[in-house]
Each structure stands twice: as structure tokens, then as C-alpha cells.
Amino acid sequence: TNDLLKIEQQRQLQELQLQKQSIELRLQAIKAGTQEEKALRLELLENERQTAQLQNQQKPAGQRQDTVAINAGFDTQRTALIQEYADKQIQAELRIFDQRQALAQSEFDLLKTTEEKKTQFRLQAEKDRLNKILELNQQAAVKMSDVEVQTIENSIERINQQIEESKKKDKTQDIYSILGLNLNDDQKEAINTSVSYAIEALNTLAQAKVDAANRAVEAAQKEVESAQTALEAELQARANGYASNVAYAQKELEDAKKNEQKALKEQQKAQRQQQAIDTAQQISSLVTATALIWRQLGIWG
User: Which keywords accompany this UniProt record (predicted)?
Assistant: First the structure.
């Protein structure tokens, strides 16, 4: 009976060795950091656990280790492996967030705007990234300390104050700065003496803002479509029994939809500004036209 048991154990060890070689070959062909790589590494770890248990059984009774201790050691490795990939996913999400912020910054830089608006955009980007870090910290295997979290929250509060201060400064500027026209005093004086030139300049700026807003809406809609497709693929993969990350895909879709709503609001705002300027064209006096635009844009009263 003992001889048969040893033969069976040796057969199982040989089978596990073949399985191990197969897993290692598949790992070489897999992209690092993917869910598929994680699944294969967990499978390899389980193979090693079973091998260790069989090898332990083959030892003389006095040399055998406690099976519970062996399993505990492999459980620790398994937990560490799962945490490693959770942290990698968090880093990947932050990289994607940074890329989106960089894209938004590049698009914003194409627009003519005031220095205060640029400051507000930069501060808002900093605030959004700090909030993203706090959000990802909730998913992290090793979380930040309470002091670190409080420091970030204090930074966010300070940024909120700076944004409000910048908005107050923005309201004190003249109409040209508000509409993003970076003109010197001579140019402003020339505009003041020419109603047609002023209205034409405002029209050009308003149309540029509408065009930019339209492009932003189109880009946001494409992002929603892409995120929807990715979610459907993850759901199909899960239904077919493959490794998937439905929760992450759903989060991406939600973020894309939020960006789309934000783009739509900016589009509506640009259209309202253009309508205000169209109305002002009917006014013969530049001063009267300027006052009308200010009121309809919500700058006065």
C-alpha cells in the first residue's frame, strides 16, 4: 500500500511539474500588469502549494512540516500578490486621470482667455487631482496616514479659497479681458471709436467659443461610446467565465458621462453668450451694446 501511495504521489508531482511549465510558458506571452497575468500567477502559486504539500508527505514522519503552516505561508503570498495588482490598478487609474487632465489643459490653452481664468483652470485641475488621490486611497492596500489625508484635505480647502479670490478679481476686469481679448490701451481706444469693429470682434470670439464647445461635446460623446463598448466587453467576458473588471469599466463609463454633461453645459453657455452679442448688434451705441452684453452674461445685476 505504501509503495502504491508513493507511486501515486510521484505521478501527481510529475503532473504538477508539467502544469507549472505550461503556466510559465503562458506567462511569458502575457502583457505585464494585466488581469490575465494576475490569474496565471495565482494559478502558479496554487501549483507550488500543492507541490509543497506532496513533497512534505514524502518525507519521513519526523521531518514533515505542519500542513497548516505550509498553507499559511502560501496564503500570505497569495494575499500579497492580490494587493500588488490592486495597487497597480490604482496607479493605472491615476495615470489615465493625469492623461485626461493633460488633454483638457492642452485644449484650454488653445482658447483666448484671461489670466484669472487660466489661474482658475489650473487650481481646479490641482483640486481634482487631490480629490482623485483621496478616492484611490480608499482602494489602496496600504492607505495613507490620517496626517497625510488631513494635509491633502487642507490643501483642497486652500485651493477653494484661491479659486474664489480669483473669481472676485476676474469680475473687476474690463469687458475685453472678460471676453479673452488681450488688447493694449491703443487697441481698446480704437475699438471704442468703432462700433462695427467691436461687434465683429465679439462675434468672432463668440463663434470660436461655440466651435470649441461643440468639439468638446463631440469628444465627450465619443468617450461615452468608447466606455460603453468597454463595459459591454467586460460584461461579456464575465459571462463567458473569463477574467474581467466590470466595476472599473462601469466607473469609467460614469466618469465619461459626467464629462459629457459638463461639456454640454459649456456648450449651452457659449450659445447664450453668442445670443447676447447678436442682440447687441441691434444697438447703435457701443456703450449701450456693451452694457447689454454685460447684463445678459450675468456680469451686471
Answer: Coiled coil
Report mean pLDDT in 10-residue bins for the chain, 301 residues.
83 93 92 88 94 92 91 92 82 85 84 78 91 85 84 93 84 57 59 63 77 84 84 80 76 86 86 75 52 49 39
Give dist(CA 6, CA 97) in Å, integer. 56
- Which residue reads 489615465 in cell numbers? 96
With beta carbons less than 8 A apart as the criterion, state whether 240 and 232 touch.
Answer: no
Burial class of 198 by CB neighbour count within 10 A (0 to 12, 13 to 18, 19+): buried
Task: Take residue 103 and report the three cell numbers written for it.
Answer: 488633454
Radius of gyration of the chain (CA): 31
pLDDT (0 to 100) of residue 111 = 76
Please measure the distance between the N-terminal and C-terminal CA atoms of the chain and give it in whole angstroms.
Answer: 97
- Read off the C-alpha cell for 290: 456693451
